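S2.1 Query sequence (cytochrome-c oxidase)
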Amino acid sequence: MSTNAGTVLEPSPKRVGQDSGGIESFFYDNKIVRDFGIATVFWGVAGMIIGTLIAFQLANPDMNLGNQYTTFGRIRPLHTNAVIFAFVGNAIFMGVYYSLQRLCKSRMYSDLLSKLNFWGWQLIIVAALITLPLGITTSKEYAELEWPIDIAITLVWVVFGWNMFGTIAKRREKHMYVAIWFYIATFLTVAVLHIVNSYEIPVTFWKSYSGYAGVQDALVQWWYGHNAVAFFLTTPFLGLMYYFLPKAANRPVYSYRLSIIHFWSLIFIYIWAGPHHLLYTSLPDWAQSLGVVFSVMLIAPSWGGMINGLLTLRGAWDKVREEPVLKFMVVAITAYGMATFEGPMLSLKNVNAIAHFTDWIVAHVHVGALGWNGFLTFAMLYWLFPRLYKTQLHSKKLANAHFWLGTLGILFYAIPMYWAGFTQGLMWKQFTPEGTLQYSNFLETVLQIVPMYYLRGIGGVLYLSGVFLMIYNLYKTAKSGALEANEAAVAPPVVKEASHNAGHWHSWIEKRPMQMAVWATIAILIGGLVEFIPAFVIKSNVPTIASVKPYTSLELQGRDLYIKEGCVNCHTQMVRPFRSETERYGEYSKAGEFVYDHNFLWGSKRTGPDLHRVGGKYPHSWHYHHMLDPTSMSPGSIMPAYPWLFEQDVDLSTTQKKLEVLKQLGVPYEDEYIANANEELMKQAKAITADLAKEGLEVRPESEIVAMIAYLQRLGTDIKVKETQE
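Output structure tokens follow.
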């Protein structure tokens, strides 16, 4: 893994020289690494500030700031996109662009492609920063960005892959180190995930409908969502761990054989586990069972990677006391091990029955995100900046202070969220000796956990304050040195081996990037195909229900407003087949009820009650008052008010186009109905406003609140609903 860097005369940065002994001189591009490093820090702070704000919004609805662009529903996906794709994404590029050059003993294939990768990625982040607060969203978790941005993501990702494979092709090191295997698998799998999940039909420039509906859309989304975590937050960081941990510890990787088993078993098994996000839903049982089985199997390869990382530190634990970089790495790998043990445990049906839809899942996710991704990124930054600027780290004391602030931040975040999750899961299911729900009012649970939300916010402040210490430390480090934009290096050219001198069987793949890419692609495609083909081809997986009809034009506009406001971030539309849920909400949800839902809106968190059976439960006036002032109907509610819904009008110019696109996707709208869509919309809207007028509530039929009421009143009414306990 040595870089073999030497001192040479200063030729042109892009010219390769060769001395009489065959040694070639060249230059590593450090400027692109520095640029991605600065972007990592900048977007990390931005994403964490938004995360801290939304944490306090759940404790105090006044923190929604009283306008439509800063509500929890609008900016929660901005937080997730910022920390995943902006903070972690730039960290991945930073680490890959530094390590790949040294592992291949070659400058990046193209400086132009490097710049296109950098600026293209930053522009995508800016596009997300603008569109998500405006309510331009698909509502699909970790894939909220609309279709023009999806296309831009595809193009920039291709640029990254082109640059990466070009560099690998011109490498001077025949053997591809294990980190490169993970980089290759990451590029290929993320490309497949993004393309498949982003199949959508545009309605306007900023609006589309998913090409999949209901159960099938849910399966595709959580195949994508789970594996976005697997192949964006995990595999590239494992590759970075395999490079930076041995460098920082100055020790070889513990086991080469274990790294082979770790890599192939991880990428093969991970891709199957997505359905564990949909246990006890309307997804077919066979798909749920596959998700459980492969999730439990994931413990072995995940812990194989953790063990390989921690045992690399054998003989170097004394350095952990002294070096903050190693402190961050040890906690990062430990957090990875904890999260990858807890994930399979949460996939067991009996555990999932209590944990799902609660803050337990939020705690689990953030142990991985803050511990594994955050701390490993901080370790890379502390290790890289002194080397990029040819100086010493400004202050180890500040770095150690950052470590302890970050660790306390994680504890203050995770422990209250675990407590809140256990509280929710148990209170939701508690019955009295007489057989009735003990806490029939959902708000009773919410009020119990508000203090936990405040503590979670404090944890975020602690974690973020450590990041500000790091920024100061890195700035002072950079000021004390000078960026070596083009770092001189020397290496001998690749010597072609005789075919009979193959060595270890796996070396045949390691020395051939195309074979590595082909086998990795096969490994990740198998699980997806086994899950998708039956779900899409065998009709019995999604049985239809004759009484289920498409949404009316007004209800469809209301549904799109529901998506725009991000209501799905707090409310589910999936009643699971538990007595505690059917008593509270009504009849459990059936697969056939969602056949016309493009996109599906099952949700993944219950900050508020499930809404799948809310239709007809309350009069129109209840929804009117609830959206204007939630506490007037639900004292103590942490939901923000939505006064702009009463002031803004539905965009009637899109109605007909929306119905046409949905018909193209198989929703059975009649041509005559499409032609008269707005007339039908106004007819239903006037009926609602007439009903509101009886209670002295004057509202224009074209206002957004009327469409929202129409959608909410439709939910769950297509089948006979069991009487629910008030």
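The longest helix spans residues 442-480. Strands lie at 17-18, 24-29, 200-204, 207-210, 486-491.
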